[in-house]
Each structure stands twice: as structure tokens, then as C-alpha cells.
């Protein structure tokens, strides 16, 4: 593991005036990537931006930039981002990470109970194994199974001026503020008053773009920005309780893909042996990501990010 430290999430400089660059979302498995992609998808549908949903590298091989150019992509949603494949140059994006310990626990319940197995040939055998062992043993297995995800988080370059770094715990605590910050950073947030006079033309243009995406019209009418009021409405329509069957964040359902959403839940499931094994595998990763202040963290001494 690299010893490079990761700075806390903070706003970066706004984009320079000029043509809108390629936009991008970079996520990781079990880091609210499906939820974040859904909101990006709604925005792109309205705005008439061509979106590429990239679950892995199969669509583009090892040349993401070439793929984007060939397909005339406006917004990349790379939900399992691997830094070694991100060869983009002129782009502006945001990157979302999560406490690796919460990721492991979330993955345990998801991989055991609910995560789709199609297009993931390794998962059925892993699920069968998880169903045969105790939760304690299952969490040990998850630490190994999720090694690629955690190593990709560790290898990411957190010093890019054109990428806004965010932690899931802070981002999802106030998603309205979070998405306003994201789209403001991307340079595509229209903060002007969304008056009644503006609403009908916007809706007609958005309908045109949605019909184009569905193949019902041969042309689109791309927008330069998304109105802040519309963005907040999209975030509201994609709130946690809508995905979780009415449950509030923190109310767990072990059978649901959207199980809990509560930060610090790892401490309810880790044992001291889990802590020791995690440190053996991943060293100071949680310190470098800003989730602990010292390498001697333990079950007895930790602080939930966002509750400080």
C-alpha cells in the first residue's frame, strides 16, 4: 500500500470559462455508486447528455479516452473505477469513497443475500460459501473477496484538481447540498431563479431529450446546465427511503440491497480479530482515507465520520 495521505473532502476551484469538458463520476463497489449513478442518469436524460454507464472495462478495453471519443460521450459513470484505466485528459469529475470497514460489512450482507449474480461469475460460489459459514467467518471472507475494490481505492490519485473528492458518509448525510456542490464543481449548475416562465420551455426541451434517448426522435437539444431546482427534485425522487421500501437511513434490512446506509455500522459486526486481520491486510488505509487519526484504532476508540 502507498503511504500517500488522502486530504479531507473540500470544494475545489470552479472550472474555467469555455466549452464544457467531458464530465465523469468515479465510484466503487458498495460506495453508493448505484444510487449516485441513478441521479446522474436522470440529469443526463433531462439535459440531453449522452451517458456511458461503465460497470467494468469490457466496453472500452484499456482505452477509455478512445471509447469516449468514438461514442461521443458527454458523461462517464464509471461505477467500479480502476485508476489505471482512466486515461482521460480534458475532463471534470467527482470521486466517491467509503469507510473500507463499512464497505466490507455492507458487501457481506449484499453478497450473501441480495446482490445480482449475472455478469459476475465469481459471486455465486462466494455466496454459497457465505451461506455455509457464520457471520464472523463471512466477514473474514469478505475482506479477501473485496481486495480488488480496496486496492483500487488505495491506488487512486486523490490530488487531481479536476476531480472533486467526496466521502459517502458526508455526501449522503446531506445529499441536496452534496449534489449542488458536485454539479457546481462540474460547471453545469444553473442557479438562476427557475421561474414559471422558464419551466415550460425547460420541460419541453427535457421531453425532447428523453424521447431522443428512447429512440423516438432523431435529434436532441443538449442543455448547458441543469437548473438547481430540478436537480434537487431529482435527488428527492431518489432518496434512500424510496429505494429501501420506506425505511429510513439506519433502519437495517439484511435482505435488501439498500440494507442500512448507516455510517460506522462496521463496529456492530467487527470483532477484535476482524480489526487485527483488516490491519494486517490493508495497513493504514483507513487512516490515509481520513476515517481514523492513528493506526492504533480499535472497536473501543473510533469516531463516525459526519458525527464529529
Spatial extent as radius of gyration = 20 Å
Q: pLDDT below 50 for ≥5 consecutive residues: which ranges?
A: none
Shape: globular
Number of helices: 13
**Strand content bin:** 5-15%
The helix content is: 40-55%
Short description:
Helix content is 43%, strand content 9%. The chain has 308 residues and is an alpha/beta fold.
List keywords for this structure.
alpha/beta, globular, 13 helices, 308 residues, Rossmann fold, 5-stranded parallel sheet, 43% helix
Structure overview:
The chain is an alpha/beta fold. The protein has a single domain, classed as 3-Layer(aba) Sandwich (Rossmann fold). Helices cover 43% and strands 9% of the residues. The protein has 13 helices and seven strands. The strands form two sheets. The protein has a five-stranded parallel sheet with strand order 2-3-1-4-5. A two-stranded parallel ribbon has the order 6-7. α8 (175-186) crosses α10. The protein is globular and about 60 Å long. It starts with 21 loop residues before the first strand and ends in a 20-residue tail after the last helix. The model has no long low-confidence stretch (mean pLDDT 88).
